[in-house]
Amino acid sequence: MSNDEIFAAAYREHYWAVSRYVARRLDGRTGEVEEVVAEVFTVAWRRRAELPHTPLPWLYGVARNCLSNAVRGRGRHRRLLDRLGNDHAAHGRHLTSGPEAEPPGGWVHEALARLSGKDQEVLRLTAWEELGVDELAVALGCGSRAAAMRLHRARARLRAEIDRMRHPAATAPHTARRTPNPAATAPHTARRTPNPAATTPAKEHGHG
């Protein structure tokens, strides 16, 4: 197959997977999703000679870079709107939710949101896109051992956040018990304080 044919096959097979990947990270903002996906496959077309035999993880890596550019551009756009005094909410009324773009529910979503962006992406690639370690390495642009280590650390941090959410004040009662009570020690202090009247000898007065 020629490079053009390889690209065409990858486009047909993986267009919707790339669209889901982007939609999940843009909360289903339809217009932006379409723009980013178009950019992903534009880059893939230009680099079609580099397409690997299993192209999807590679396409996810391209999508990560395109998303980073989109997020930076959206930040600049938001700052411009703020300077112009426009209501940014008015520009977001066309937002829609994609059919497969639902975020994780409840406490999992909250715990995930507390992690760094890099940790979040590692976990999403393995959970949402169901990548193995070798595929994860391709998407992240690193070696398999580095990808496995990043995944291990991200999972450990997620578990730690979940534990903190489940037991937010686990140490508070113990701390309270260790705090001394000044009122409890006051009587002992009073008993140890010498009585000035008992130790001062009576002054003798002469009769002049």
Compose a concise summary of this entry.
By secondary structure, the protein is mostly helical.
Outline the secondary-structure elements:
Blueprint: H1 3-25, H2 30-46, H3 56-84, H4 106-113, H5 117-127, H6 133-140, H7 144-166, H8 172-178, H9 182-192, H10 196-199
CA(first)-CA(last) distance:
133 Å
String of helices and strands: HHHHHHHHHH
Oligomerization category of the chains in this entry: single chain
Total strand segments: 0
Helix/strand-derived category reads: mainly alpha
Gross morphology is globular
**What is the count of DSSP helices, taking H or I runs of 4+ residues?**
10
Largest sheet: none
- Helicity, as a percent range: 55-70%
Radius of gyration: 32 Å
Are there runs of 5+ residues with pLDDT below 50, and where? 79-83, 86-105, 171-179, 184-191, 196-208
